[in-house]
Amino acid sequence: MDIEKIKKLYREGKTLSELGDMFKVDRNTIRYHLKKHGVPIRAKKEVNQQRKIDISIESILYLINVEKMLVTEVAKYFGVSRATIGKRLKEVGLNLKNHKNQRERQSEFMKENNPVPKGCSRDEKLVEKLVESKEKSLQNKIRTFNPKNFKEYAKFARYLAYKECGLKTPKGMNIDHIYSLQDGYKNNVPVDVISHKENLRIISEKENLEKGSNSLICLDELYKRVGVQRLATIA
Q1: For the chain, what is the mean pLDDT?
Q2: C-alpha angle with apex 6: 4 to 203, nearest 5 degrees?
Q3: Which of 85, 86, 156, 194 is the most buried (most CB within 10 A)?
Q4: pLDDT at position 60
Q5: Can you give the three-state secondary structure of 101-127, one letter per residue?
Q6: pLDDT per position as a tens digit, 103-147
Q7: Pairing of strands 200-204, 173-177
Q8: pTM
Q9: 8 Å CB contact between 68 and 54
């Protein structure tokens, strides 16, 4: 990585996530190298404050009223927190809790994403059916997953890794991909292969940052560990 270029872009306002996407590494790797070279890391509050200034009320209302976005979707669109959007609207006297369009849209969203009826949460058969449905949905997503960029690939791969490890890691420890995510993306390794338990290990944050995007095993060794045949299209 070009550290001087990273330092320059960061000082110009680029975020850790944006730099991670540009250089195809994790945002924590960018943070590590900036701190290592004596560059002060901006607080998230400071970043949000700067972005908040650049977000017009008109743009927010357009996305909510015309594009029918949820507040969380608007926040993601601008790269800020949901609270930042709420505060921005309150400055002009708008309260999202009383915003009719937002209430209706939120209600539709909850119905679509929470199919379990009230009073049925203890029904074991219904819960089993829901879990089975979610698992099928996840497997289908894995089969059809076609990431547009490294960020999208890494995000889904990390989700699968944490799911594989029980979604919990000891304090100060990280889940590490032995064959790295960056190499996995470069070589078109399927997300379920890159995040298979045989390619995961729990190491300290310091070890993880020092390892960076390097792979500790070769591609053939990865497929051998996972126990699946390497596709000819990847060779």
Answers
A1: 77
A2: 110
A3: 194
A4: 82
A5: HHHHHHHHHHHHHCCCCCCCCCCHHHH
A6: 666 666 555 555 545 554 444 555 566 567 677 777 888 888 888
A7: antiparallel
A8: 0.47
A9: no
For range 16-42, the mean pLDDT: 87
To 10 degrees, the CA torsion angle through 125, 197, 230, 27? Answer: 110
pLDDT of 178:
92
Measured distance CA(226)–CA(222) in Å, rounded: 6
Phi-psi category of residue 218: left, alpha or beta, with phi > 0 → left and psi -120 to 50 → alpha: beta
Q: Which residue has the tokens 């609207």?
A: 89
Segment 147-162, tens digit of pLDDT:
888 888 988 888 888 7
What is the mean predicted confidence (pLDDT) over 192-204? 89
Report whether pLDDT(187) > 60.
Answer: yes
Distance CA 172, CA 165 (A): 15
**b/e burial code for range 187-211 (CB count within 10 A of at least 16 → b):** eebbbbbbbbeebbeebeeeebbeb
CA–CA separation, 134 and 56 (whole Å): 38
Q: How far apart are CA 153 and CA 226, in angstroms?
A: 19
| Burial label, 33 (beta-carbon count in 10 A; 0-12, 13-18, 19+) | buried
Closest CA to 147 of 24, 23, 17, 6: 24
- Helix locations, 57-171, DSSP H: 57-65, 71-78, 82-90, 100-113, 124-144, 150-164
